[in-house]
Specification:
single chain; elongated; 17 helices; alpha+beta
Length: 395
């Protein structure tokens, strides 16, 4: 993607309360539709006390046009709510989204909004999801900012470098981030929001996450990922054998219809079956190549060996959800592979258009979730740090 001269990185931090209330999808949809910016990185954090205090120290600034009292409220909120719980030491979940594009910081800040004390109608994210409640004497009774964002490019650079510095130690695939009742056995499952949702800035990725929020599960990892051809071949490898061996009835039927149309005679059941058996492996390989191209941007047969592991041109967002019966709950909301067979209210019925272009993938077992998370290097590859480091040149 080509970026103009006023190219900026901007961040949005979703607070622990926002994540707990499952407002992630609605906020992401607003950010993408109202700014037109590209989502280039995303990472879950469980901030340490060191990161929390270092970030809080940067919040009150003369460069911020927001009222100093509000800045101080945000600083105090960060100190009280982002770091480890003061009693039991449990780390709190925080999500950091990074956007890139022309005048990105200003665009993000305008969508996030500022607290003014005047009645609001829901125009900004803070109008809708944040709260500033004062008593009759003007003292603060309740404050929840919902999200945090930088006021200008200089502050964005300072704070993004700070979060990048802590991104390996405090971020990634979070462990023991949720306290479950005694006897509850959580699972983890992978959701991959597919490239068809990122053809242009839209609310679709956020809407998919919003649908998934009805499961009551917790997001413990998020990553913007560009599948290499090698990634896609390994990820969808189990599908290849199914395509090559189990579709012979459909292949034979369609091939028989083509023969009848072209030559004017019927093959009959036995020859139709033989034709299906003959053509099914080739058909399966062709369909597999289509899947890999859809996910990575390149067909395996057209990719030079030395470029097999390079990041592809197509973007996905990978999320790991955690909680009881995570695999079943996610797949129930996602719906069947074929959108035409999916029930109303499912993700694939709402956003899918074909068996391949069906909005999202979800693991079908905890074992496959682990396999797929390993292929996508969730917990290992730190795209957040790379994006920030590459943009600012290591300065």
């Amino acid at each position: 993607m080509q970026y103009p001269m006023a190219d900026h990185l901007a961040y949005v931090i979703l607070t622990p309360y926002t994540l707990l209330k499952s407002r992630t999808g609605g906020i992401l949809a607003r950010l993408m539709t109202r700014t037109g910016l590209e989502l280039v990185a995303a990472r879950m954090f469980a901030p340490s006390q060191a990161l929390t205090e270092a970030y809080a120290d940067q919040i009150v600034s003369a460069r911020d046009p927001q009222d100093r009292r509000i800045q101080e409220l945000i600083r105090d909120y960060v100190l009280q709510n982002l770091g480890p719980h003061p009693v039991n030491g449990t780390r709190r979940r925080v999500m950091v989204l990074v956007f890139r594009g022309d005048d990105a910081v200003r665009k993000i800040r305008s969508v996030v909004g500022s607290f003014t004390g005047a009645p609001s109608g829901g125009e900004t994210i803070r109008d809708s999801y944040g709260d500033l409640v004062l008593d009759e004497r003007g003292a603060v009774r309740y404050f929840e900012p919902a999200v945090l964002a930088a006021p200008n490019p200089e502050d964005a650079a300072i704070k993004l470098k700070l979060w990048a510095r802590f991104s390996a130690s405090d971020g990634g695939l979070l462990e023991r981030a949720i306290d479950y009742p005694m006897g509850v056995q959580p699972e983890r499952t992978l959701v991959l929001i597919k490239p068809d949702n990122f053809r242009f800035p839209s609310g679709r990725p956020g809407n998919v996450i919003d649908f998934l929020s009805r499961t009551g599960l917790y997001i413990v990892a998020i990553k913007v990922h560009r599948m290499s051809v090698a990634d896609a071949v390994e990820f969808y490898g189990p599908v290849r054998e199914i395509l090559r061996t189990r579709l012979h009835d459909m292949v034979g039927r369609r091939a028989g219809m083509a023969v009848e149309k072209e030559f004017g005679f019927e093959l009959g059941p036995e020859r139709t079956n033989q034709l299906g058996q003959l053509l099914c492996p080739a058909f399966g390989d062709f369909q597999f190549e289509n899947i890999v191209q859809f996910m990575s941007g390149v067909r395996p047969s057209k990719c030079p060996p030395e470029r097999m592991t390079e990041p592809g041109t197509e973007k996905s967002v990978a999320l790991v959800y955690e909680g009881p019966e995570a695999v079943r709950k996610i797949r129930d909301v996602l719906g069947p592979t074929d959108p035409s067979q999916a029930p109303p209210g499912s993700i694939r019925r709402e956003f899918g258009s074909s068996v391949m272009v069906n909005a999202a993938h979800a693991s079908d077992s905890p074992e496959n979730a682990l396999r797929e998370m390993t292929i996508l290097r969730l917990g290992q590859e730190n795209v957040f740090e790379k994006v920030v480091g590459d943009f600012y040149g290591g300065s």
